[in-house]
Description:
The structure is a homodimer. By secondary structure, chain A is α+β, with helices and mostly antiparallel strands. Chain A has helices at residues 3-11, 14-25, 30-34, 41-53, 72-106, and strands at 28-29, 57-62, 65-70. Chain A has a three-stranded antiparallel β-sheet. Chain A starts with a helix and ends with a helix. Chain A binds chain B through residues 5, 8-14, 17, 21, 24-26, 70, 72, 75, 78-79, 82-83, 85-86, 88-89, 92, 96, and chain B through 5, 8-14, 17, 21, 24-26, 70, 72, 75, 78-79, 82-83, 85-86, 88-89, 92, 96. The structure holds a DNA duplex.
Amino acid sequence: MSVSAKAFNALGDPTRRFIFEKLRDRPLAVVDIADGLPVSRPAVSQHLKVLKEAKLINLKIVGNKNIYEVNREGILAMRNYLDRFWSEALDNFKKLAEQTEKENKQE
Amino acid sequence: MSVSAKAFNALGDPTRRFIFEKLRDRPLAVVDIADGLPVSRPAVSQHLKVLKEAKLINLKIVGNKNIYEVNREGILAMRNYLDRFWSEALDNFKKLAEQTEKENKQE
DNA sequence: ACTTACGGTAAGTTTATACTTACGGATAAA
DNA sequence: TTTATCCGTAAGTATAAACTTACCGTAAGT
Lengths: 107, 107
């Protein structure tokens, strides 16, 4: 599974998007991330694992605290996927247009 | 629910990503999209509905055929979300750094 | 040393969602 | 004007994934 696929999957869940956006403001320890969320702390841990494997966040262990912060890598992977997707779609669109034009002249 | 949230949710599913990428090559009717996929045609219809509501594809009805094609709007919504996300994360990072510096001088 | 705070993982439950079959309406072909 | 093709929706099922409680190890305070 590619990084971008993992990232899309990770951000597909609203709770994970919420956590991700919380970390946009500042790096936070797990308890602080869980604070205010309507789910248990272990649930948050599981979400963090998914976000981390998608390279959307990374971990810094400081003493007994696990500090998570946003990671650009996953963001870039998605961005690149989208940019490439659209440029390829445009290319294909042009090719199809040319082909259709040829077929029309033949008739 | 915002367009970008819907789009992330839509591309979170591997079958929908597959369909989306199939439509990148060319616009296709529903039967042609379903052809080769390991799921039933109604399942494909349901996926198409989700992708359509996320503005990732749109529909052109031609006779009795429903032709789906990629739509840039959903793609742009995600791209904008990611770009803004990262620039805001950078801003916050700078502010935090300045604040930390001040606190260090005070001590 | 003891106690408290932090947080990951395991195991099981619940809920969401992806899927199926069955159906019906609309257009196109015979 | 039948008959076939196309495809959306409804209803129910099956599966995935989000969640819970319980537990344990580690680090930090007392």
